[in-house]
Amino acid sequence: MPNRWILRFLLVALPLLDLTGTWCWAEEAAQQPNLLILFPDQWRRQAFSCYGDPNVKTPNIDRLAAQGVRFNRCYATNPVCSPARAIFLTSRYGHQTGLIQNNLFLPPQEITFPEVLAGSGYTTGYIGKWHLDGPAKPGFVPQLRRQGYQWFEGFNRGHWFPTGARYFTNQGKLTNPKVFESIYQTDLAIDFMKRQKTNPFLLFVSYGTPHTPYRPPAKYERFKPADLTWRPNVPAKIRNSPLYSKHLSGYYGLCELLDHETGRLMNFLDESGLAKNTVVMISSDHGDAHGSHGLHHKGQPEEESLGIPWIIRGPGVKSGVVTETLAGTIDFAPTLLALCRAEIPDRMVGRNLTPALAGEEMNVPWVYTQGRMTTAQERPQTEGNLNSRRNIQAAWRALVTPRYKLAVDNRENVRLLIDLEKDRYEMQNLANQPEHAALQNRLWKQLKSIGQQTRDPFPNPVARAPAKPVAKAPGPASSASRVSQVVAHRGAATERPENTLAALRRAIEVGATATEVDVRTSQDGKLFLLHDATLDRTTNGKGTATELTLAKLKQLDAGSWFDPKYREELIPALSEALILCRGKIDVLLDLKEQGEAYAKQVAGEVQKFGDPKKTIVGVRSVEQAKLFRRLLPEARQLGLIPDPQAIPSFSQAGVEMIRLWPRWLEDKTLVPQVKKAGVKLHLNGTTGVSEEVLQLLPYQPDSISSDDPGKLIRTLQRIGSSEQ
Predict the structure, then answer these.
(1) Is 489 a catalytic residue?
(2) Candidates 247, 286, 489, 682; catalytic one
(3) The last residue of a domain, from among 360, 379, 413
(4) Is residue 296 flagged as an active site residue?
(5) Which of residues 360, 375, 392 is at a domain's end?
(6) Chain centre to alpha carbon of residue 266
(7) 247-264 burial, b for 16+ CB within 10 Å, e for fewer?
(8) In this structure, is residue 88 part of a structural domain?
(9) Tens digits of per-residue pLDDT, 534-590?
């Protein structure tokens, strides 16, 4: 299987990459489903009526569960916000990514499931709290650090539910919606889904509730403390506390609000016709103890903190299934990728649980969980300083089997041993009791073995992920003026329909020095421009583009998908694009096919209709570089390297420039390698906003590509002038 760099080249969702093949099950080549993920913050498994809570009513989610699969035994792989979210994205443990606590940056070399789906043709969107972009601050999350989400409306961190959060638009504009946050998030989600016309979509809705503060809108303040049914493992002093009763009442109110918002989304899916091809998933990053065992909030291995819901419905999911199959956050990404018929990277370590979605009871022998990843003692609980004998305040690991749970602290003391089959509420801790010594030793040995298999250094400290972005913002001596080439990606693709003559004209108008175009061959052997292998996304046609003649392709509308006013735009022949650009702008050819015949045809058209001296050939192999050096000796070459290890071979083949993905830059050796090879550096993909550009400039790129070349040019000019 490919190594991680090849996988990143194949999967990462940045503009110059094309991965259009559909990953299908052998029996069918069905349409890839949409994926809607609802991910509330701190919603424990026990707080749903379908999971048996006697207080809360969640009829919409109950209906969703009845139409799909409900996991009774799903656990947070780490019951803390940032680590849990990183585990979901990567299907890797915290000790593998270094994302071991809140307020760190997820290392950019990690491959995420949104990147995989974006590379498989999905439009990806994210709404709400991110909490993977460093310090505990609200703030705009730049595109380079969105981990594969192409559209993003939210913020890094914060909980301002009653007054409305400090939201940032996709372009970074600060907004303050004057509506309860969960309601606003649902509105954004519906608007996003309305905009999707052709490509399958992934939409992740990161609801901030029912996390603290436990203050729902007045409509959902129906719970009276005296009427609450507390879990049996909650001490009397908490049951009798007005403060904790108020907290639990507010929590349940927020749960019912979220159920209502889920109903709004389900109604939209039904009314729009999207329901039949949309997978809907509900889960959470972790639970909330709410006084069980004298504990509060999250971070502990008890069921109320560790147990999370997992409900999923849609194509490929059997209806009306309640499964006891063990599952964890780390299993989400592989399972969803398989359900969406996408490649599961080798780097992901979670299980593919799609057999359980088909109604099969799977024999999952264990779930490995971890928490309090540092070895430093945590602060005592602040609410009443209520600690129990089982409260593991330092680093811990836990093993959950179909019957038992074992939790061990960083001093290798067994703090928790529970027979979950006999003791649902974890009231009888069997740890360190002589009659259970054999069981404890067996489970302890199994936990150690899993840790060794995953290279968990526990009980030793774990290396942390960066506390700062990989690329720091430049100082006064930054090199904005060094960027000599701004490449308009597919033309000015944010302003005009991509790969059309209108987009190329706009790239010329805004002052881009080069425009990138994607070149394919029609059924009758003519060269034309189209990024995707299929016609569905950017035309009114359907199916594989290369199966039509150029004449048939020319009958399609290639502009209305972007805006009705561009309905006259057609798929251009390569010759038309070359003629338009000649003498006005350089042309970067992104070659979507291989072979000598294809290369000769491209070279012939450049010589006939274009200007070889103003042509940049994007080569994907050393052999292709050598071939075009012979066919178009005057043209420059950009090495679209498959992985960083190819830098020496491409430079030796004579390419003038090498492209690096911004997410590769975590490896500090790569840029020096490019510089040492004596070739120029091209960095791929930015919206042109200042924060993103400032992250790239310390690497001193010679060339940058953008869907919005005009904005990128203005940003570079502004930065350059501010430094003079």
Answers:
(1) yes
(2) 489
(3) 360
(4) no
(5) 360
(6) 23
(7) bbbbbbbbbbbbbbbbbe
(8) yes
(9) 999 999 999 999 999 999 999 999 999 999 999 999 999 999 999 999 999 999 999
